[in-house]
Amino acid sequence: MKPVLLAALLSLPTLAAAADQVGPLPMPQVWQVVLVDGKEPGWTATLNLSEPGQLFGQAPCNRYSAPLTQEGRSFRLGNLAATRMACPQLQAEDRFLGLLRLIEAADHRAGLLLLTGGGHEIRLVPLTE
CB pairs under 8 A, 24+ apart, for 82-90? Predict the structure, then answer.
């Protein structure tokens, strides 16, 4: 066997190990809802993933939080809690929080976070302040 080919073959395990260490690019932590079921929602809501195992954010009226279990694409919320201040957007908030409870999967690609479940899709983009 030629020395160059032998050296290339011997380096394959090292290259594979280095590739395993690179991992995915970091995902933004704070997201803003831009579409719900393909339509602009007419309200503002955020989703924050900065704490492992926890989801929190601002719904159309109130702050909310929930324990989060993520494994692969699986995205499941535990009991969701929210403050209950009155505002004109309470119906929108109830819909948003109801949709969050249905979410089963998350896909992150090219600056976009897609949450799907129960036949619904919530599309989010990184929040820019």
Answer: 85/61, 86/61, 87/60, 87/61, 87/62, 89/43, 89/60, 89/61, 90/60, 90/61
- CATH, residue 39: 2.40.128.270
Helix, coil or strand: residue 112:
strand
Give the angle subtended at the CA of 122 by the CAs of 64 and 104, to the nearest 5°: 80
Work out the end-to-end distance of the chain between its first and last CA atoms, rounded to an integer number of angstroms: 59
Q: Domain of residue 91: give its range.
A: 25-126
Question: pLDDT (tens digit, 9 = 90+) per residue, 105-115?
Answer: 999 888 899 99
CA dihedral 76, 118, 114, 101 (to 10 degrees): -40
Residue 43 lies in a domain: yes
For the chain, the domain total comes to 1
63 DSSP assignment: E
Residue carrying the six token digits 């809501």: 45
Report the predicted TM-score, pTM, of the whole model to 2 decimal places. Answer: 0.75
